[in-house]
Design goal:
Length: 284
């Protein structure tokens, strides 16, 4: 069983990762798992406040990564550093970027999104693109321009989910990923109409209805339903829209067993959307 807990922690872990995982004669020394009171959880690259990598039930969770060398004050340069560090941490856990399921990225300035995407295009495995969410946010230090956190799978069968009944992905990622154990990771859905890729309307109500419809169709393509969702994340352009979105969200999931949830207000969303919703589910 996997428990999903919201977290606001920001990583400073590239320094820690390089300090613990030393290099001798150009050969990386593999990190050993730190002691744990839970024998089914492996923890790597231990820091004073948190670990850089935790592994449980075939899943690999990385802390958010920031640039080790902030003298490079460009999003492109810092992003390349981060993706390199992610590759190293994934290798420590026994997996690689072809098995990354979900990526969350935070930029201090969404105007630098193109540079982030340039580094992303150079790094991502285009044959196995993960789901992705990217928002504008303040980071722990002003010199940090970008932070990236990933969730990946250990070697096993992971299937790409695609359906034309929902709006297509608007970047180098997939609508959803399904693991062999039934875990489904759905990319953030916004109010784009299937086929045309146009926004369904200008109001948050119309966009929320379309985003939830897209989510329903993607879940169905993965063999799941709203009742199988275990965790959602809602991103709002304006937090004052929370009441309207919450009402429609409640109607979508109904009463009783509803998923865990986190909701954030962000400065901007892709395509000028007012709302974006992503989810994780366990298909029967």
């Amino acid at each position: 069983m996997v428990a999903f807990v919201s977290s606001g922690a920001v990583s400073h872990g590239l320094y820690q990762a390089r300090r613990v995982c030393t290099v001798r004669s150009g050969v990386r020394i593999r990190c050993s798992a730190s002691p744990s009171s839970h024998s089914d959880i492996k923890r790597f690259v231990e820091g004073p406040k948190f670990n850089q990598v935790n592994v449980h039930n075939g899943m690999v969770y990385l802390s958010g990564q920031v640039a080790a060398d902030t003298s490079d004050a460009t999003v492109l340069g810092q992003s390349k550093q981060i993706f390199g560090a992610i590759d190293e941490l994934l290798a420590i856990a026994g997996t690689d970027k072809s098995r990354v399921l979900s990526v969350s990225a935070w930029l201090t300035d969404m105007g630098e999104f193109a540079d982030f995407n340039s580094a992303w295009d150079d790094w991502v495995d285009m044959e196995n693109k993960p789901t992705r969410a990217c928002v504008e946010s303040k980071l722990a230090k002003p010199e940090f321009l970008v932070e990236v956190a990933v969730t990946a799978a250990l070697p096993s069968k992971a299937g790409i989910i695609s359906t034309d009944k929902a709006a297509a992905a608007v970047g180098p990622y997939n609508q959803a990923i399904r693991l062999a154990d039934g875990m489904v990771f759905v990319s953030g859905c916004i109010g784009l109409k299937p086929g045309s890729g146009e926004m369904a309307g200008d109001t948050v109500e119309v966009q929320t209805a379309q985003a939830l419809s897209n989510m329903r169709e993607i879940l169905a393509a993965a063999g799941a339903a709203p009742s199988d969702v275990v965790k959602t994340m809602i991103l709002l352009e304006d937090i004052s829209d929370f009441a309207e979105v919450n009402t429609m969200y409640k109607e979508f999931f109904g009463e009783g067993r509803v998923p865990a949830r986190s909701t954030f207000a962000v400065k901007s969303l892709p395509k000028g959307a007012k709302v974006e919703i992503e989810c994780m589910a366990v298909a029967p």
